[in-house]
Automatic annotation (TrEMBL):
<dbReference type="Pfam" id="PF05406">
    <property type="entry name" value="WGR"/>
</dbReference>
<dbReference type="InterPro" id="IPR008893">
    <property type="entry name" value="WGR_domain"/>
</dbReference>
<dbReference type="InterPro" id="IPR036930">
    <property type="entry name" value="WGR_dom_sf"/>
</dbReference>
<dbReference type="InterPro" id="IPR049809">
    <property type="entry name" value="YehF/YfeS-like_WGR"/>
</dbReference>
<protein>
    <recommendedName>
        <fullName>WGR domain-containing protein</fullName>
    </recommendedName>
</protein>
<feature type="domain" description="WGR">
    <location>
        <begin position="17"/>
        <end position="69"/>
    </location>
</feature>
Length: 77
């Protein structure tokens, strides 16, 4: 069975805890879905972005790209 991955970053600020999540999971039909969620804890769910991937390898490559982007982001997550 192929396993997905879930990553979460949090940043504590004066206005609350901001979060960013990345979730790569296999759907019921065997395809792969990469979902990004971000916002502030204690408020409505923030934006959600989902993209389908042709394979787990493609999904992991997209996750690696997001990790690099997080590392270069101006906020330190």
């Amino acid at each position: 069975m192929n396993q997905g991955i879930r990553l979460r970053w949090e940043k504590h600020t004066a206005r609350g805890v901001r979060y960013y999540e990345v979730d790569l999971r296999q759907d019921l039909w065997g395809g792969w879905l990469l979902t990004q969620t971000w916002g502030r804890q204690g408020t409505r769910l923030g934006p959600v972005r989902s993209v389908s991937c042709n394979s787990r390898v493609e999904g992991l490559a997209r996750v690696a790209t997001l990790l690099k982007r997080r590392q270069h982001h101006t906020m330190s997550w």
